[in-house]
From TrEMBL:
Signal peptide: none annotated. Residues 192-292 form the Pirin C-terminal domain. This is Pirin family protein. Belongs to the pirin family. It comes from Intrasporangium calvum. InterPro entries: Pirin, Pirin_C_dom, Pirin_N_dom, RmlC-like_jellyroll, RmlC_Cupin_sf. Gene3D superfamilies: Jelly Rolls. Residues 42-141 form the Pirin N-terminal domain. Pfam families: Pirin, Pirin_C.
């Protein structure tokens, strides 16, 4: 998914000091229109002032359920990425993915599509004609410095649903509850969908070297003395080896667990690019604009014939914007 903001801010991201193993923090979201004539809205809960990164997770958009007859669905033409992996996860609907590695795949509920941008890639995302309701999350993972120029690639994985004390769990990245995803990762991460019955409590054994965020999708999630509503993230800092989560008493609660070891690096994130300096991001933008005119090139690859158009990069600010972390 592309960052649809017309004037995206430059962001230097780093980890803040943890508040201690007993503290939990609710990260709110802001509404961002995805674009198009009717602009499908998304709820962006990462990055933000309170927290730029959870492990290497650097971007969280939560959307739906949206009636595509009203919002127009997802219509994101070809656009570039560098220095990250995109993680696509759906609850309802279907999205068609194409990219400049030649990959052409469908994103379906309960199945992971992960795209490694590395040195540079471009992709498009469109909800299919069979989709009436669209509901899911688009997540980005920042690649560590030693791997950020790897060759681009694409992987698909359908994790098995397992039952843990009555909760349904799908582990799509890393290891949890004895399940391990085979998907390629470049830092120590975990990602899982957890479905809780109304009023259910679940104790999760986690790595104390990881930060953890619980993105609430439905219901209300309570943990560590705090509660999160849909679109909000309940954040737990380092130091916990067990985290207990509880669903609201009146309805089922579904969450995405996003965890990982602190990245330990500063990154600059602007539009769809992740770099290490302002000047590097400027070069990424200039490269995309050149290759967009030529319909492909060395850095971002050959454009699929199915792309009638691609997204131009927004204008860069005239001065460096203040960083936030």
């Amino acid at each position: 998914m592309s960052n649809p903001e017309k004037n995206p801010a430059e962001v230097v991201c780093d980890e803040r000091e943890a508040d201690g193993p007993g503290a939990a923090l609710v990260l709110p979201y802001r509404n961002v229109p995805l674009g198009g004539p009717r602009a499908m809205p998304v709820r962006r809960s990462l990055p933000q002032r309170e927290r730029s990164l959870i492990g290497a997770w650097c971007f969280v958009d939560h959307y739906g359920p949206d009636d595509v007859s009203e919002t127009g669905g997802m219509k994101v033409p070809g656009h570039p990425h560098t220095g990250l992996q995109t993680v696509s996860w759906l609850f309802t609907g279907e999205i068609e993915h194409r990219d400049t590695t030649g990959a052409h795949a469908m994103v379906r509920p309960g199945q992971l599509n992960i795209m490694t941008a590395g040195s540079g890639i471009a992709h498009s995302e469109y909800s299919t004609g069979e989709t009436t309701m669209l509901h899911g999350a688009q997540l980005w993972v920042a690649l560590p410095d030693e791997h950020r120029f790897v060759s681009p690639g694409f992987e698909h994985y359908a994790p098995p649903a397992i039952e843990i004390e009555g909760a349904k769990v799908l582990v799509f990245l890393g290891s949890l509850f004895g399940e391990t995803s085979p998907v390629s990762m470049y830092s120590d991460l975990v990602g899982a969908e957890i479905n809780l019955a109304a009023g259910q409590r679940l104790e999760i054994e986690v790595d104390p070297r990881h930060e953890h965020g619980f993105l609430c999708d439905t219901g209300t999630l309570t943990s560590g003395g705090a509660a999160a509503k849909p679109g909000e993230i309940l954040f737990h800092p380092l130091g916990r080896d067990r985290i207990t989560v509880e669903a609201s008493s009146s309805e089922e609660t579904r969450v995405l667990l996003l965890g990982g070891a602190p990245l330990g690096e500063q990154i600059v994130m602007w539009w769809n690019f992740i770099g290490r300096t302002h000047d590097e991001v400027v070069r990424f933008r200039e490269g995309w604009q050149r290759e967009r005119e030529a319909r492909g090139g060395v850095q971002f690859g050959a454009f699929p014939d199915a792309w009638p158009d691609t997204l131009p990069a927004p204008e860069l600010p005239n001065v460096r914007l203040r960083t936030r972390g």
